[in-house]
Amino acid sequence: MGAYIVRRTLWALLLLVVVSFLTFVIFNVFPSADPAALRAGRNATPALVHQIRINLGLNKPFYTQFWIYFKGLVEHFNLGYSYYNSESVKSEIFSRLPATISVTVGGFIVWMLIGIPVGIVSAIRPRSILDRVMMGGSLVAISAPVYFLGLVSLFLFAKGTGQLQWFGAAGSYVPITQNVGVWFNSLVLPWLTLAAAFAAFYARMTRGNLIETMHEDYIRTARAKGLRESRVITKHGLRAALTPIVTMAGMDIGLLLGGAILTEIVFNIPGIGRYAYDAIVNSDLPAIQGTVLFGAFFIVFANLVVDIMYAFLDPRVTYG
Amino acid sequence: MRRPIAAVAGVAAGVLALVAAGCGGGGSTSGVQGASHTITAGKKGGTITILSNGDVDHIDPGAAYYQFTYAITYVTQRPLLAYKPNSIQPTPDLASSMPTVSKDGKTVTVHIRPGIKFSPPVNRVVTSADVKYAIERGFDAAVGNGYAGAYFGVIQGAPTKIGNSVPNISGIQTPNKTTIVFKLSQPSGIFVSGLQEPLTAPVPADYARKFDKGKSSSYGNHQVATGPYMIQNNAAGTITGYTPGRQIVLVRNPNWNPKTSWRPAYADKIVFKEGFDPTVGTKQILSGQADANGDFPPPAANMKQIESNSSQKPELDFTPTAGSRFVALNTQKPPFNNKYVRMAVAYVLDRNAMRLTRGGAIDGKIATHFIDPSFGSHGFNQAGGYGYNPFPSANNSGDVAKAEAMLKKAGFKSGKYTGPQVTQVADNVAPGSNTAAVVANSLQKIGFNVKTISVQHAAMYTRFCGVPKNAPNICPNVGWLADFHEPQADLDANFDGTNILPANNVNWSQLNDPAINKLMAKAKLELNSEKRWAEWGQIDKMITASAAAIPWIWEDSPTLYSPKVTHATELWNGGEPDVSFMSVK
Amino acid sequence: MALLEIEDLHVSFKTMDGVVRAVEGVSLSLDPRKTLGVVGESGSGKSVTAQTIIGLTRFPNATITGRILFDGHDLVTMSTDDLRAIRGARIAMIFQDPLSSLHPFFKVGHQIVEAIRVHEDIPRDVARKRTIEALRSVGIPSPEERFDSFPHEMSGGMRQRAMIAMALALRPDILIADEPTTALDVTVQAQVLELIQALRDDFGTAVVLITHDLGVVAQMCDDVAVMYAGRVLEQAPREMLFTQPQHPYTWGLLQSIPRLDAPRTERLSPIAGSPPSLINAPRGCKFHPRCPYAPPPAFETEPELAPAEPGHLVRCHLPVEERRRVWQSLQQEHPVLR
Fold first, then answer.
1. What percent of chain B has pLDDT over 70?
2. What residues have CB less than 8 Å from C28, skipping those under 6 apart?
3. How many CB pairs under 8 A join A and B?
4. Do A218 and C152 touch (CB under 8 A)?
5. ipTM value > 0.90
6. How far apart are CA B449 and CA B422, in angstroms?
7. How far apart are CA C106 and CA C153, in angstroms?
């Protein structure tokens, strides 16, 4: 197991290098804006654009630029400075990390608390009215775009703009360290919005997995032993049905930690997703690079955690 | 030009929705031209909240070059000249009176008000040397000012090579602590107007020099103020009120003396909250949670609702943006090196349909030449006002017959273009992509086969249209906003044939017409404003008639206020709210 | 008195395709300490019958009628809670594939402990000791270590032994073994059958052995019921069935047993055709489409399960003499039926 983790970690690092290199290549090969010209402004003299190009290191061939970036990253964990406003990308990302974690983890808790029970209830009585209502509702939730759902929730339940002024408005996020109450209140709608599609998806997954599991021979064995049906479902059924869901949840959290872009934009939460969006709008390569790298890191890391977790969840899986 | 004209993302969907609903919103824009919005006196105190989608471009006043940033810069900094919100005529701010220009036009003298102090922690009295340093650091790449070369390059000794240090410019002289003298290498009709740019706001060299060192100045995060407000900072002078992409907090500058300023500065605190989706932001302003929009127009669907609501309609101000959008034709290569082919395009373009791609009449008036109505007597009237339209058509929808006549003059006997395919480089997102599609459709009517390359808006400028060797035949999504209401600021960069650059070029049609160049050179030296504006009006007509570029819209910028505040819309600055004139009711 | 008495059992399931009539009027009886073999192809209703005994077919779409008398109670109408007390404790069941029948995520020992503690309120460590004893009694070496093994860590034979240990840990009155050896290697099959036999003899457990393999029946059973299309076609004590089979289907099954005395090259002869649909069963005798001897009435009316001689029930239209004659000629002619 130890050797496996080491091997996987090395692969993960290599993958991150490849990802950041590809970001560089894509940025340089595809027609994106010239950062020096953007930084200098449209009325700038050629002399100024020239010097800014040198200052940003853009006069060097792109592989040299990548090497400089890479060296800074490895030696000093330096993610570079924004072309747009010269701020340190690393400090920007880290200062935004708590917001993204707040959105993601809270949303995750909500979607698991809703999705899994709904899935179980549906699976116990498949094709019942309750099942049909819940699965129909989940289809709607999956199909509703986050952006639209976010706006609707704001216009229904947010202070100021809502019909019922219950929860924090867009842009009311404060760090948890500053005021827990305000933090929580500002995140209720983002959590629900983010969780809606995921909860629906997880409910459908749970239902499908559980129904399938309940047809397994070992469930019949459990019943033949004389176990109560509730115990057959909660212990024998869910134990098997939820294992793939737990791993998927790990992957989804990893993905979202890279920035829940739409949710952060609608609710104006200063997270990594919002930063990534601004970076793209501003053709700000270091910021794009930083957010891509961070997103990739979380995905790769989540993958690793999920794989290790799987070995604990499913005794049949071993890594050598 | 402060910013690519369509910098705000996320507006597109709303605009299209408006088109689908067939709403013109026509009445709203009437009376904009020349008219100033009413500004009422208010009472002191309270907090004003401005919402924005994006961030300022640069927090450093010496690098700021964006309308939204100016809404902050002008109330925290005092340039030599500035504007009252409903005016396009500069007024002394740090200067005690308007500058005096010598007869030969090569010496400009400005006196500054005595006793104006920097905010903490500097706290000392501003001297003319601080103005000199402020302008000089504009020529340092570490600051990266975007307009220093354009407006201050005419000063004697201004560097032509830019490095990472603050140069000493011999032509900026400070004979005493309240006098600053500019020695110019040649007379300039717009030099005095340029003194209203924030680059002339004083920067204390003794304090700022350490921050200006290196490749990237950090003075922005340590800046001190001279205006009624300052960005919140700590005792060491480090800015604490600015979190990039999140918010900017302005508090009162304790060292500001109201007797030295015409700004009423009613509110105690101003918060610029950033990162708002335009729909959400608009709703929050309407609900009174916030007070005005900073960088985004309310989405068209919301504007339609506001316009139809009698209590909300008065909260919406429209302001001309001092510029136009146009279609640039590459005059340096076939087929648009032929004047008649260009004129055919000018006749056939369906400007009405193009305007609909941006929301129709609510977005502005159809442009028939370049200098926009907000210039009024500063050149708009001289260019023929609303009456000048060399390529008229019914309902501005294009005139195929006249276009075909032009093509015949160009040698296409059938009246249809039969040459090779032409290429345009356009935005890859709406509304620009839709505008480009209309252009292609219009050209198709007279035989053109248009190939469209779609890229990011900024890439369109910096990689294609702004690089002559990569320039396509047509740039359908370009536009220009004048920095101030001098026609030279509107026309020179775009159409001066002596200033076509190999990169970062803004003369997108690469127009190099000796007659126009000659008249421009003359007008630039003209110190008499009436004569100057008349000459530029003439230049506007000549450019328009050449059809090197075809203007199609003079845009209006909407400013929405909450019911809790009084209005103060900046006519000179594309409708930004002037927070030093707004007040909490 | 019989330990288990099944009377006129009908089991059907409503499905999207129609009503599946899986069991149609089955009556069986099992005496203490005896082994009843239930033989048939897949789809004959033998497994459904077996599972219905302990209520494993009580699905929402199932209709069950008839009586299953056990210890004076009718298991068909018994409440689920009461039935659950009998499941595992008094009537235990083991299944065909021990790998899929054991939960892959739980240790084998734990699964047996759970089975014990459902029925007996005893501490964990006591249940553990009993589990280890049970594992030892089914011949699993070093049962203390095996207690902590996961199913996938054991061989197929070991797994089935563990299943048997689980079934027998509570000393049930009846063990229902549903194809207990089908998924196992031939050598392991014999060991498992011997184990079941030994346990029956040691503990006095009655066994219902569900199988498609008459060879297994010949080795193990006291009585045999041959099932087809949800019905019993022939039922007799073992000796009688093997020496005097009276149903053409039984003949076919007997002809398809591999015989040690037959030449290796001789092909086994499965019965031609396939079992009928349980949704749209044929009219008349359910076996007539595959029966080379079917007399005309078989096409129209279904024969009753009638005594041909004491203790021997047959469901066939052929006259008794005719059956004897055919069986004799079949045996003389050739051991293989075409």
1. 94
2. C4, C5, C6, C36, C38, C49, C225, C232, C235
3. 162
4. no
5. no
6. 6
7. 12
